[in-house]
Amino acid sequence: MPEPSTRVVLEVESLTTEFFTPAGPLRAVDEVSFTLQQGQSLGLVGESGSGKSVTARSIMGLLPRSNVATSGRVVINNIDVMSLGAAALRRMWGPEVAMVFQDPLGSLNPVMRIGTQVAEGLRVHLKMSRRDARRVALELLARVGISSPESCLDQYPHQLSGGMRQRVVIAIALACEPSLLIADEPTTALDVTVQAQILDLLDEQRAERSMPLLLITHDLGIVAGRTDNVIVMYGGQIMEQAPTSVLFSDMKMPYTEDLFRSIPRIENPSHTRLATIAGRPPDMVNPPKGCRFAPRCRYARGRCFEQEPELRAATSPGHKYRCFHPVGTRAADEALSANKAEGRVNETGQLVGPGTT
Amino acid sequence: MAGTGKAHLRPHGEALLRVEDLVVEFKIGATGNVVNAVSGISLDVLAGETVGLVGESGCGKSTTGKAIMGVPSPTSGSVLLDAVDLTGLSDDEMRRIRPDLQMIFQDPISSLNPRRSIGDIVAEPLMIKREDQVGHGPVRGWLKRYASRFVAVAETVTKPLRVLLVLASVAFVLWVVSEAAEGRRFESELAWTEVPAQIVGFPVLVILVAMAVVVFAGCLVWLALAAMIPFEVVSGYLAPISPAVGLLGAASSAAVSWFMVYRTWNSLGGNFAWVVRGGVLTVATVSIMWLVASAIKPSRAGAAGVAASLASLAYLQVFYIAGLDAVTKLVVILASAALDYFIVKLVVKKLAMRRSDTQRRFDPLVREMLEVVGMNPDSTVGRKPHELSGGQAQRVSIARALIMNPKVLICDEPVSALDVSVQAQTLNLLQDMKQRYGLTLLFIAHDLAVVKNVSDRVAVMYLGKLCEVGAPDSLFANPAHPYTELLLSAIAHPDPLIDPSITEVPADLPSAVSPPSGCRFRTRCPRAEEHCGQREPQMRPTVVGQYVACHFPLVEMG
């Protein structure tokens, strides 16, 4: 999908983040590379533990310095985030990159008035006077769709509903006009109706400011209509990366297919048996040899358990995947029928074995 | 919307669970304002049916689920389970019904006690039920009935003495119960020889050991003297103590009791009235301490009751030592307090051991249940909740609920905190369990696709009222209520060809403190007219089979 402006705002190259745990080093993010252009939105999708949130925190420089090793390159607007010290990072948060977290109540200070919290960034980063900051805060609250911004300024977070709080958090994130907005599961704690409102708001602000948006979620439904590109992560790696429409019409990774199939669909009749992904996410201290998804994959054959597949390009531009038996190809059909013949997969296409239900 | 009206209810007698005109209100401090969390919901669930309750947060769906469980009891309305009205039951009766009504909560990790193993957690409901049936249940009931009589008898003692004893017993029991309630493990903390030896040295230890026997036996004597407590109650308390200790106690009590009575008789100058008063006082003290203990921590009342009765031994000493000199009195009082502490610890430990005995008996059932929900029992029973993933923890919650063989399972957002793949596993599991055990489910969730997947009948709630009730397939294909349509339009479809921005979602939910007049949905409703603010719509059948409470429904009315 060609964008009018193609200035790269975020460049992530071979980002690797390891935590040192008592059990050994845990590689939460493994050689992740992608770029994000002005005005674009990118969805980062995966199960819990797939490394999507750690990726976001690594980009922000939010991870603690002890017991964590981050390597690779993260460039936001020509600033190399990895090389920044604590003070420089603080100067960057707000004007360059801002983040919206999952739990709006947890990300607001319960003993500070909303107005003070929205104005804080303006006062610190943009050195505004108290009066100017309050005026801008009022504008911001109105812009994010709060119906009575004047009274909201003097309220405390507990006086607002979940949706209102998330709007306030977005107003705070947008206050210093960031060049990049990262939203980490921004609607997971919210209702469907509020979810739709918040996603609309993020989308509207992205378009208005031509600000790129990195939207992290476990819900393929959320990225489907609202992102330009999608990255599917599993076990800390990028499994598949594609323009959104391509991903949904021509998914290559068995993992993406499984994720997609396990969503309960409103179109399906009641009591439709849901497809599940057998087994559990990999132990990241001792990741499986070969393809990370192989133990849970119905297409996996001997080679998948031995050799790690490379992220390779598909036929459509911008589409990459990491699989030896991409879905919809002859290789996949052959692998599946061979697995059925061996009894590893049953007739309905579900993996048979321990830990599968 | 409005949803007062019961047109959608099935005939009486058909439903396993029937909720009528359920109202739950929460008072806001001293303002006099009231949160109208649930305002007149009527709902029924047939045996073996799954009813889905769907709506935004704040619509009262979770409050409805909890009100059915009686936590807290509804403000008004009735909840009929098998024709028994749960709202009229006493706490004890409700406690006996609760095994039939089990619940699964949203956050699986926080609904499991982090300090206990999975085996313990799954066995817990069985343990509680068993204790209610055979353990301290009868003792508690008996003591409750007679407590008032005890207090009346205690009135016969002189007033200053009574006040002093009550105060002292309250302080003592508060301390004992707080120790017990902290859940401290009493093992290994106090060895037989350690504490007395540290406090008063070995010679005193010998005296203390002797006193332990005396005190223990004396208690039996006094209880027998009082002749007010039936034998099975006494033996109920003593059951936790191992046979050896029991034998020792019985043997020594026979020998020592004679000595004690003789000694007391003499030291009190042969005043028989004092002996009787002593007995009465003991029983009164036991009962008072019992009441205090039960009030502080009802779930620990069993252990606390034992503790309270043993603590009363300290006061017995006062009567034994009336004729001794001041220094000896002090030593004996201190010693007996230390001993009581020790005995309490011993008994609590014994209780814990008895628990583990019982638990061993439940072990096969626990393992079977874990296996049924797809967990490997060998690797699971010894683990703690933090070692489990969210999906596994939710399986454990399901096992814990199903082990009681409930009639109705209330699931409050059971999959909202889970990933899609785990969500699918959990929903499939619930479906399997429903078929296997013929479960009846009330499934509360905000995700329409999830509710549609599991339900046989769906009820849509808005701001404490019902909007629409019907079969999931027809309800989602032909929503009759504008609110159902709004919810459907807000779904995030996993299909990039569906443009999500075409629907305009109106402002937030109005406050439940002052809900809109007439139809509560009218402030956000695209079809609302003046009429909607004046009259509350009633539940009416539509031609397509569902029931709707709306003045201007989206489908033809039947």
Key phrases:
heterodimer, A: 357 residues, alpha/beta, four-stranded antiparallel β-sheet, 13 helices, 12 strands, B: 558 residues, Rossmann fold, 19 helices, globular
Please give the structural blueprint.
The complex is a heterodimer of chains A (357) and B (558).
Chain A: E1 8-21, E2 24-37, E3 41-45, H1 52-60, E4 68-76, E5 79-80, H2 86-92, E6 97-100, H3 104-107, H4 114-125, H5 130-143, H6 149-153, H7 162-174, E7 180-184, H8 192-209, E8 213-217, H9 220-224, E9 229-234, E10 237-243, H10 244-249, H11 254-261, H12 302-306, E11 312-313, E12 320-321, H13 330-342
Parallel strand pairs in A: 3-8, 3-9, 6-7, 7-8
Antiparallel strand pairs in A: 1-2, 1-4, 4-5, 9-10, 10-12, 11-12
Helix pairs in contact in A: 4-5, 4-7, 5-7, 7-8
Chain B: E1 15-27, E2 34-46, E3 50-54, H1 61-69, E4 76-81, E5 84-85, H2 91-97, E6 101-104, H3 118-133, H4 137-154, H5 159-181, H6 194-226, H7 231-238, H8 243-267, H9 272-296, H10 301-311, H11 313-320, H12 326-372, H13 377-380, H14 390-402, E7 408-412, H15 420-437, E8 440-445, H16 448-454, E9 457-462, E10 465-470, H17 472-477, H18 482-489, H19 530-534, E11 540-541, E12 547-548
Parallel strand pairs in B: 3-8, 3-9, 6-7, 7-8
Antiparallel strand pairs in B: 1-2, 1-4, 4-5, 9-10, 10-12, 11-12
What can you see in these coordinates?
The complex is a heterodimer of chains A (357) and B (558). By secondary structure, chain A is of the alpha/beta class. Among the domains of chain A are: 74 residues, no CATH class; 100 residues, no CATH class. Chain A contains 13 helices and 12 strands. In chain A, helix 4 packs across helix 5 and helix 7 runs parallel beside helix 8. Chain B contains 19 helices and 12 strands. In chain B, the strands form 2 sheets. In chain B, strands 6-7-8-3-9-10-12-11 form an 8-stranded mixed beta sheet, sandwiched between helices. A 4-stranded antiparallel beta sheet of chain B has the order 2-1-4-5, with helices on one face. Chains A and B meet through helix 7, helix 8, helix 9, helix 10 and helix 11 of A and helix 15, helix 16, helix 17 and helix 18 of B.
